[in-house]
Structure formats: structure tokens, C-alpha cells
Design goal:
Number of helices: 10
CATH topology of the largest domain: Rossmann fold
CATH class of the largest domain: Alpha Beta
Number of strands: 5
Helix content: 40-55%
CATH superfamily of the largest domain: Response regulator
Radius of gyration: 18 Å
Order of helices and strands: EHEHEHEHEHHHHHH
Largest sheet: 5 strands, parallel
Strand order of the largest sheet: 2-1-3-4-5
């Protein structure tokens, strides 16, 4: 089965290099490259990619917000961040926004193509350095009883977040608005003293 690939990257040389790797790989179909989040949001839904490679540092809207928006219109697409950033905050923000993998730009052709294949098989590929940071972050997150301070509704929202539901899906499930879900999530973060979805879920599972 052919896998349709798109790229969101503002470096034309890198975009051309990676698109060449994709074009020359059996089983992959390159459907287009976009130099900004804004053009991607406008055009990608009509291109129907299976996997989208996304840079974080883009002109205008960044790649993380781009993924968050595209996930609403392309729920079945898989997003792989390909970036130079290795800080924990960006990693977890990207994963919380809907990315299913996180690779560094210094990844080799073989590593990137293997990551695409892993995504199509249901995996969540990460560069070794990124995977280590994720593990260290979870190990450094102590289990507290702070979750007991959550309201019944907040616990329900957090439970659905831990199952991978998007904000819109949670809103539909409980008959609420996305604005209300955002409010619930903000309060959850405040009560659990966390700054990302992944950290909140870690505390929820470890309580």
C-alpha cells in the first residue's frame, strides 16, 4: 500500500532533499511541500497525505500550532515533527498537539524513512536523544495526590486526555464547547502544577 507524504518546511534546500528521498523510495508517494503553516492549513486537507513531516520553526504560525489545527481537519493524518529543537517543553507541546513522532533534523535518510514506516505501523518514532528526554521527564515527575483536588468533570476530561482524545472530541463527548474544555484543561494544569498534556497524563496515571 502506498503511503502519501507531505512536508511543511521553510528551508527549500532541506525540503528538496527530503522530498527526493521520498520520491526515490518504493511505497512512498510525495504529494507536496509547503513553506509555511498557513499555506499548509489551506492546501493539505485536499492533498490527503497519510504522513506529514513538520518543522517547528516556521515563518508566522509555528509547526506545533499548525499540527494542532490540521488535526481537526485531518484527524486520520499522522504528523512527524522534524526539527532541531530538543527542549522538553517543545517535545511535549508537539506531542500534546497531535504529533505521533519527533525526529531531529540531523537524522539520516535511513532513520527518517524508518520513522515514516514505523508511523504507518502504529508506532511513535523518536530520535534516541528525544526518547531519553521523554523518559527522564516521566521519571522526574513525582506521583502526588494532587489529582484528588480535581472536580469530577476535570477528572473526566483528564481521563479522556490520557486516552488520546482531541479537545474537539472531548467537547463532543461531554456535550460542551472547545472553549470550556480549554478552561478545564487550564485548571487541571494549575491544580497538578504541570505545563503540558503529557505531564498531566503522567501524574494522572501515577496517582
Amino acid at each position: 500500500m502506498t503511503t502519501r507524504i507531505a512536508i511543511i518546511e521553510d528551508d527549500p534546500e532541506l525540503s528538496e532533499l527530503v522530498s527526493g528521498w521520498i520520491r526515490n523510495t518504493e511505497g512512498l508517494d510525495f504529494v507536496g511541500a509547503h513553506g509555511s503553516a498557513e499555506t499548509a492549513i489551506q492546501s493539505l486537507p485536499d492533498q490527503h497525505p497519510d504522513v506529514v513531516l513538520v518543522d517547528i520553526n516556521l515563518p508566522g504560525m509555528d509547526g506545533i500550532d499548525c499540527v494542532r489545527r490540521l488535526k481537526l481537519s485531518m484527524p486520520h493524518a499522522q504528523f512527524l515533527m522534524v526539527t532541531v529543537y530538543q527542549d522538553t517543553e517543545r517535545i511535549f507541546n508537539a506531542l500534546s498537539a497531535g504529533a505521533c513522532g519527533y525526529m531531529l533534523k540531523r537524522s539520516t535518510r535511513e532513520q527518517l524513512l524508518a520513522a515514516i514506516a514505523e508511523i504507518r505501523e502504529g508506532g511513535s518514532p523518536m530520535s534516541a536523544q528525544i526518547a531519553r528526554k521523554v523518559v527522564q521527564s516521566f521519571q522526574a515527575t513525582p506521583a502526588h495526590n494532587e489529582a484528588e483536588n480535581l472536580s469530577t468533570r476535570e477528572k473526566e476530561v483528564l481521563s479522556m486526555l490520557s486516552q488520546g482524545f482531541l479537545y474537539k472530541e472531548i467537547a463532543d463527548q461531554i456535550g460542551s464547547s472547545i472553549h470550556t474544555i480549554n478552561t478545564h484543561v487550564r485548571r487541571i494544569y494549575e491544580k497538578l502544577h504541570v505545563h503540558s498534556r503529557a505531564q498531566a497524563v503522567a501524574k494522572f496515571r501515577g496517582k
